[in-house]
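A reminder from the course coordinator: this example appears on the midterm review sheet, so study it carefully.

Given structure:
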């Protein structure tokens, strides 16, 4: 770097004070976290280190280190361009051979009638035995060395026999696999658990709970249910946990059920907190675009959501996270070449939310028929100054095609994400100190 060059902190730098008054600074691009002492870091509070004051700190070891490690960059540096270039390189380096993730819809039928279901109105069709055999054959011909199967629906257990067929065929072919599932949990039985452990290699299940007993039973509106569906699902969660299968409960929040989810949290903590493989997370039912047409604002919903998340942490149902170790290279499975969705009829998709608006790019018989669909799911939106200057840009990948994503974060979302990042920085440092002391 030229000695007379104007410099500044890169946009991807985030700083927070420790309890001792020292400075923690994170390079969100490289994931390097450094501790800067109170005296040593005084100059860090200068927002832009311009040429006029470079001479006073030139030669300072900390300053030189920050320059070498991309904390400090030339004033006219294009931060976003470098992030995009690094993301591209890391993505190429980490790309596995073949497909390693298959999301398989065993059916679009379901035994619940949730009022918010995004699949409402689509035809209810089970995967046939022949399609299941053909799906297994397709996997054999396209798979990587070790794969994950994710069973989806509808309610995947509504047509559990095709899970048996597919996994039996893969086992015969000596393909190494494990599987996960998104389910409402109602149809779990002792037989299902036995097959899940012995044949399906099922490691985890996500189950949605929208409230305590009365509210849950009303919202799920199960068809032909007997007794309390809520009690049955809780018993089934315990069956899975006792078999060594992890269970993550998703709480779907809106303004109407927000208060009740605190009571549900208490019940779940009392019954399941002793299981290491049990966890809970909360999410809002309606996104920011949908909420515009509702009687309450997205900001109100989001604030309620964050309060609930804090409560879940207090109850030990969710945990603080440490800083990751690599730049984010994809938004989700939709923009990854190594992941695909197979529908109940054998069509291929990039997004599992098949609701009539998502376009197929081929099928298990002829393979890829429309590369344009695949390419469209990789397309990034044009970003404005808000995203360009965001310190979290290196950890944010947006897709034009995603119906649930924002073009840019509303202020309430941005503030919350930044605070969570700072909390993760402090938590990572705390864990580091514990390791050093031990």
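Designed residues:
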């Amino acid at each position: 770097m030229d000695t007379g060059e104007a410099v500044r902190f890169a946009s991807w730098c985030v700083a927070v004070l420790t309890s001792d008054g020292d400075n923690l600074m994170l390079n969100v691009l490289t994931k390097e976290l450094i501790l800067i002492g109170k005296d040593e870091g005084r100059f860090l509070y200068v927002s832009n280190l311009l040429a006029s004051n470079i001479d006073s700190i030139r030669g300072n070891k900390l300053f030189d280190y920050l320059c070498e490690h991309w904390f400090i960059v030339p004033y006219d540096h294009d931060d976003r361009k470098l992030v995009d270039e690094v993301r591209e390189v890391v993505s190429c380096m980490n790309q596995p051979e073949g497909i390693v993730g298959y999301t398989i819809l065993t059916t679009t039928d379901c035994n619940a009638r949730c009022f918010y279901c995004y699949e409402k109105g689509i035809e209810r069709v089970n995967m046939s035995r022949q399609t299941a055999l053909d799906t297994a054959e397709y996997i054999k011909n396209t798979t990587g060395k070790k794969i994950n199967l994710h069973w989806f629906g509808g309610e995947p257990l509504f047509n559990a026999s095709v899970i048996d067929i597919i996994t039996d065929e893969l086992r015969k072919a000596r393909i190494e696999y494990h599987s996960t599932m998104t389910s409402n949990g109602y149809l779990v039985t002792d037989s299902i658990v036995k097959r899940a452990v012995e044949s399906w290699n099922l490691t985890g299940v996500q189950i949605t709970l929208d409230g305590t007993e009365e509210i849950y039973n009303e919202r799920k509106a199960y068809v032909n249910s007997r007794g309390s569906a809520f009690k049955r699902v809780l018993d089934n969660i315990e069956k899975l946990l006792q078999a060594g299968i992890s269970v993550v409960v998703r709480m779907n929040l809106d303004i109407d059920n927000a208060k009740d989810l605190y009571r549900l949290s208490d019940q779940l903590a009392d019954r399941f907190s002793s299981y290491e493989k049990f966890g809970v997370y909360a999410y809002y039912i309606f996104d920011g675009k949908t909420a515009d047409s509702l009687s309450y604002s997205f900001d109100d919903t989001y604030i309620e959501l964050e309060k609930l998340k804090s409560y879940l942490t207090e109850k030990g149902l969710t945990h603080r996270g440490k800083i990751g170790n690599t730049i984010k290279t994809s938004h989700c499975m939709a923009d990854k070449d190594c992941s695909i969705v197979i529908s109940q009829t054998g069509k291929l998709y990039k997004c599992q939310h098949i609701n009539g608006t998502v376009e197929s790019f081929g099928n298990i018989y002829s393979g890829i028929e429309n590369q344009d669909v695949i390419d469209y799911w990789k397309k990034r939106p044009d970003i404005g100054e808000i995203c360009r200057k965001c310190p979290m840009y290196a950890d944010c990948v947006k897709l034009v095609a995603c119906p649930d994503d924002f073009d840019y974060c509303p202020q309430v979302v941005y503030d919350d994400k930044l605070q969570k990042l700072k909390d993760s920085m402090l938590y990572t440092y705390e864990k580091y100190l514990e390791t050093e002391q031990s």
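The radius of gyration is 25 Å. Residues 376 and 401 are 7 Å apart (CA to CA).
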